């Protein structure tokens, strides 16, 4: 994969293209460009962020629909509910659990002093179930108005958020067209072991044809 990425970066240097990788290689146009290692790290981050999180989202969504056939029935009756469903799955059981960050300067948060250079783990999953922000946070609510922060916030909002929601919408539309429901089988679900992302590596499901 590293060789493939390097080849793609070299090709954009020789023959610039107006795509995402071309923009990364070209930089801002004022001489402020990323180093080769920075480009490589960013490309890997975008690739893994777009693949692993999407597959875990669909797994978590299917598991919820297998447990809540009433929700699936509502989605089949009204496709307009899909955006709310996607937002609530991301809040209730999103693929991103935490994000490690390095503190760039000394700071005090809620009376706790954090020194420059310290590594902190931001628990996105915990924030998405903050009872001061979400009434009954442990309940899946298809009509919930407030959305979570699975895609970040402000200047750090995920660059792939629009694509991720588009993929989720298209994938769920296809499932709604083809199947009347899902059944979780009795075999044990095998979860990945990570503080960063969360989702099943193995999850047997029976699809019920429409």
TrEMBL record:
The entry's keywords: Heme, Iron, Metal-binding, Monooxygenase, Oxidoreductase
A single MF term (Gene Ontology): iron ion binding
Xref: Pfam families: p450
Membrane spanning residue stretches: none
InterPro entries per record: Cyt_P450, Cyt_P450_B, Cyt_P450_CS, Cyt_P450_sf
Family affiliation: Belongs to the cytochrome P450 family.
Descriptive protein name: Cytochrome P450
Species of the source: Stigmatella aurantiaca
């Amino acid at each position: 994969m590293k060789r493939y990425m390097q080849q793609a970066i070299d090709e954009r240097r020789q023959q610039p293209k107006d795509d995402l990788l071309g923009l990364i290689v070209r930089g801002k146009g004022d001489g402020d460009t990323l180093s080769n290692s920075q480009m490589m790290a960013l490309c890997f981050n975008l690739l893994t962020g777009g693949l692993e999180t999407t597959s875990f989202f669909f797994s978590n969504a299917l598991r919820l629909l297998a447990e809540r056939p009433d929700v699936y029935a509502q989605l089949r009756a009204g496709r307009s509910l899909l955006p709310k469903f996607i937002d609530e799955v991301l809040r209730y059981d999103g693929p991103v659990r935490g994000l490690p960050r390095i503190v760039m300067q000394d700071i005090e948060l809620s009376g706790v002093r954090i020194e420059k250079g310290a590594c902190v783990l931001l628990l996105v999953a915990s924030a998405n179930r903050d009872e001061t922000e979400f009434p009954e946070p442990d309940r899946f609510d298809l009509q919930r108005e407030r959305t979570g922060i699975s895609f970040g916030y402000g200047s750090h909002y995920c660059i792939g958020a629009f694509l991720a929601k588009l993929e989720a919408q298209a994938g769920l539309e296809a499932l709604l067209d083809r199947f009347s429901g899902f059944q979780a089988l009795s075999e044990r679900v095998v979860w990945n072991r990570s503080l960063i992302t969360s989702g099943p590596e193995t999850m047997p499901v029976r699809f019920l044809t429409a």
